[in-house]
Amino acid sequence: MDKTRIAIIGAGGIANSHAKSYLQMEDVEIVAAADICEGKARQFLDTHGLEAAKDYVDARELLDDAKPDAVSVCTYNSTHAECAIASLEHGCHVLLEKPMTVTLEEALAVRSAEKKSGKIVSVGFQPRYDDRMKKIKEIAQGGSLGKIYYVQTGGGRRRGIPGRTFIEKSLAGAGALADIGCYGLDLALNSIGHPKPLTVSASAYGLFGRNPKYTKPEDAARFTVDDFSCAMIRLEGGITLDFRMSWAMHMDTMGATIFLGTEAGLKVEPTPGLWGGAWDGSCGDATLFHDYMGMPTYTPIPLPDLKQDRFFLKCRDFVDAVRQNLPAPIPTSEIIYNQAIIDGIIRSSALGREVSVEFNEQ
Ligand SMILES: NC(=O)c1ccc[n+]([C@@H]2O[C@H](COP(=O)([O-])OP(=O)(O)OC[C@H]3O[C@@H](n4cnc5c(N)ncnc54)[C@H](O)[C@@H]3O)[C@@H](O)[C@H]2O)c1
Description:
The protein is α/β, with parallel strands linked by helices. 33% of the residues lie in helices and 24% in strands. The protein has two domains: 4-126 and 310-330, NAD(P)-binding Rossmann-like Domain (Rossmann fold, 3-Layer(aba) Sandwich), CATH 3.40.50; 128-307 and 341-356, 2-Layer Sandwich (Dihydrodipicolinate Reductase, domain 2). It has helices at residues 15-23, 40-47, 59-66, 80-89, 104-117, 131-141, 169-172, 176-192, 217-222, 310-323, 332-351; strands at 4-9, 28-34, 54-56, 70-73, 93-96, 121-123, 148-156, 197-205, 228-235, 239-246, 257-261, 264-268, 286-292, 295-301, 355-356. The chain is globular.
C-alpha cells in the first residue's frame, strides 16, 4: 500500500496530538517536522519514535527537500497563513490548526492559494466529529425550530489563561477569542448552515491577563491579547448572533448556547467546572422549548455520550480526503465566515464601534 507522506510544521503542544493520530494509521508515514526553534523538531520526532524522519528549522526547506504529500500546520496563529500558503505552493494538502488565521485578509490569501493549487485545506475543528454537536446541527436544521432568528453562543472559563505562545499579540494575534472563541462560533455557524456575517459590534478586555493576582507575573508582563470579548453580529437572513467568550472571569459560565426559532427554542447547557462553558464545542444537556396543545412546555433531548476520539477522527477524515481526492472535510469556504467574525471583533473592539464585514468570496 502506498503511504501518504505527511510532515508536521510547528512541533509544539498540539503537534503531539497530530503525531499520535497519524501513528495509528497504517496508510500514513510521518516523514518530517519543522520548527523555528533549533532542535525542537528533532526532539519532537524522537519522542514519537520517528528517528528516520527528517527535522528542519525552516518550513520551506522541509517542503523543498522532504516533498510531503500533505502537512499538518501546527504553528501558533500568526504563522498559520504563511505556512499554509507555502505548503500549498509546494503542492501539499493542508490540515490547518484552528483558528484558520488571525485576520480575514490572511484567510482570504489561504483560500486563494488553495484554489490555485488544486489541493485541499481542512481546518482543525475536531468538535465537528462529536456526535453531540452533530445532533444539535440536526435539530437546528431539521425544521422543528421554525425560522431561527437569534443564536447565543460562547461560554468561557472562570480561570483558564493558557500562557505560553497564546498571550502575545505578535504570536497569537488574539487571546480567548482566537483560542476558544472560534469553537463557540463554529458550534453556532455550523448548526445553522453558515450564514454570512454582515456587521459586528464588539468589546474586548484584557483585565485578568495583565493582573498578577490572576496570572503568573512573568505572563502578566507580556500579556497583550483579550481574555474576554463579547459581540453582537448581524448575519444574513435576519439572524442575530450574540457571542461571549472568556479565559477568566468572576462567573461560573456565560450561559448556555441557545437557538430561538419561531416554532421552538433549543438550549444547550455548558459543561460544568472552572474550565466550563461550551468553549471547545463540548455540549452539556439539551432541552427543546416548544408548545404542546397550545401550552408552553419543554422536552429534554437525549444527546449521545462523548465517546469518540474526535482528534483522531479529524486527522483520519483529512487523510481519507487526501487519498480519495475528496473535498476538504472542514472546508475554508465555511470557516472563512468564522474568521470574518473574529476579524470583525478585533476591528470593532479596537475602533469602539460597529464595523461591516465585506469580502469577495471568490
Ligand atoms: N485543535 C485543538 O484542540 C488545539 C489545541 C491546542 C492548540 N491548537 C492550535 O494549535 C496551534 C499551536 O498551538 P500549540 O499549543 O501547539 O502552540 P505551541 O506554541 O506549543 O507550538 C507552536 C510551535 O510552532 C512553532 N512555529 C511557529 N512559527 C513557525 C514557523 N513559521 N515554522 C515552523 N515552526 C513554527 C513554534 O516555535 C512552536 O514550537 C495554535 O494555532 C492553536 O490554536 C489546537
